[in-house]
Amino acid sequence: MAAxxxxxxAELAESExxxxxxxxxxxxVSAAPLSALRESLSAAQLGLIFSLLNTNDREQIExxxxxxxxxxxxxxxxxxxxxxKAELQSGLSHPDDSVKVLxxxxxxxxxxxxxxxxxxxxxxxxxxxxxxxxxxxxxGVAKEAIAALSKLSNTKAGLDAxxxxxxxxxxxxxxxxxxxxxxxxxxxxxxxxxxxxxxLGYCANSSFISQLLEELTGDDVLIRATAIEMVTSLAQSQHxxxxxxxxxxxxxxxxxxxxxxxxxxxxxxxxxLVKFFGNLxxxxxxxxxxxxYPAFLNMVFAMxxxxxxxxxxxxxxxxxLLGGTVEGKQVLHKxxxxxxxxxxxxxQLARDEATELRVRSLEAIAQLLTLPVxxxxxxxxxxxxxxxxxxxxxxxxxxxxxxxxxxxxxxxxALRIFTAIACQAWGQRLMMSTPGFAEWVVDRSVGKxxxxxxxxxxxxxxxxxxxxTREIFxxxxxxxxxxxxxxxxxxxxxxxxxxxxxxx
Length: 504
Known about the structure:
single chain; mainly alpha; globular
């Protein structure tokens, strides 16, 4: 294979109409083992292929990009930096976006390597061109540029180059191009800031973060909504949350929630505010966040009851997120009637609304009812049992009816609710008092498709994870459950297979 590639490269060097040779080379390169490619092409031969990108022929560009994409991935980043630096830089200003993406991908590899980053830092004009790619029209080019600069910033030398040199002005100039480009730069800044307190310090000292935080209260509600998403991403790291707290951002966002009632455009950004605190509660402490910022939980309940379909989904997701933890369950339990009303509303949504909202409701209910065996106490079991009873006068029948509907996503969501209560003794007693339920659980003809079979298998596994199942379900049903689990989710009996073949 290596000899064939050598021969094709030699023919390519002599050809005035290179397309035929390029197509053959693409085939050979695609078929060659990666180890063979590493030894097959010299810097000069790579330069030949790069030179063939200088054309208006789209097919020729496409084939060259495919060849180079395959070959360059196996070469050492330091080798690329030393031998292909000029070609990669040239690719950054190529009129074809696929060439830009190729160059940016390889530069991203180079700056992730100790020797490679040294080579690139010695040529700041390369990084200048990468920064300009953040402002490219095509989002795919911009994403690769952001990724490359983010990798560069994983080292102190890279941080110094980007934030303490002339490149900082280049970045700010690109940022000033438009609202869209500004938020691409914010995306980069948030990615860099999330790595460590040191990298956050660089971004803060360069005024990027303070500028982002000012956008939270800007006049444009769409820009405000985007800023909230960025700040939520910044809060994913512990040092990011500490910085935001020191800047008073949690209080500012809480005040924005309080003031939302008087803003006719709040529906554009309110879901983002709620998501911010929902994520904060899960990463830190549901009790601490809900007690410190009561406006957050009050708004979640208000949104859950809101007839506006743009507000309800985030409320459902947040209730599920909070209720998925034991501490969150205890916080929600203290709200009393508010949660009871919300559960009835979730039940109604699960029965009567459009499929997407039904799915969100059912998923939230499943999270609220989930209580792992190792976290079960008498108080928590009473809590989840009461929550289940609030759903409907006949909650088992309601969920069972949903599980029989011919929509796979609803079927699986209903099964997840049964799975949530399957390891809780009160749930098992309800199952056994529901006619035909024990037989339905082990009936493999119920539910088609891989996801449905996986969900049923998880339900059986949840039943068998509880020490009370044998007593409540009885020895015979318990053995059937064990056999189901041992046979796996996709087991098909020989009798069933023969019957199916005969029917065909």
